[in-house]
Design a protein that fits this description.
Length: 175
Amino acid sequence: MPTSIAIYPGTFDPVTNGHLDVIRRGAQLFGELVVACAVNISKQPLFSLNERISLLQAVTKGVKNVRVESFDGMVVDYVKKQGARVILRGIRTFSDFESEVQMALANRTFAPEVETVFVCASLEESFISSRLIREAAALDGDVGRFVPPQVLKALRVKREALQAQVSQHAKGRKS
Ligand code: COA
């Protein structure tokens, strides 16, 4: 039986206009879209899980049929638990395509009944990522075009932590 629930998983550290574009497109395609914020300890996110969820909730307030949740563990297990069969993903660039297909095929191996559906992310936001936003914000770059106002404000509050994170990465790259 087809279901009209789709899951859009990601780390959202933080949510950007690019993610929002995918969320809006997904909300038009499915009866319900669950934005699933990954705990993702491997990335050591700047924003805590609660902060990432609060920001997602704030910026999706006006988008009908969107629910924000968190998940830990395998995404396909979470999808099945939600009674869904679709994973929604956005493709920005050709390099995204390669890694997204790899992930979709791996997920299909784990759960053949779960399908991955791709939407093309908007051209204007195709080059941004959460990492780029964090790095530019740490260096006082104007990132207001790329994130919703609530996220811009949250980035300003995190300024010191951001700068520490960026200089740590820079040291890591040199060594
Ligand atoms: N606009 C702007 N930025 C975007 C974007 C868009 N449309 N789509 C992706 N990005 C950014 C992300 O913010 C992320 O930035 P970051 O690396 O600075 O955090 C980057 O591009 C990579 O995105 P993505 O590949 O979606 O990584 P993610 O960390 O957001 O999500 C999970 C990855 C959580 C979906 C994936 O790791 C997962 O499913 N984990 C659960 C464990 C599991 O099941 N593993 C097996 C999978 S085969």
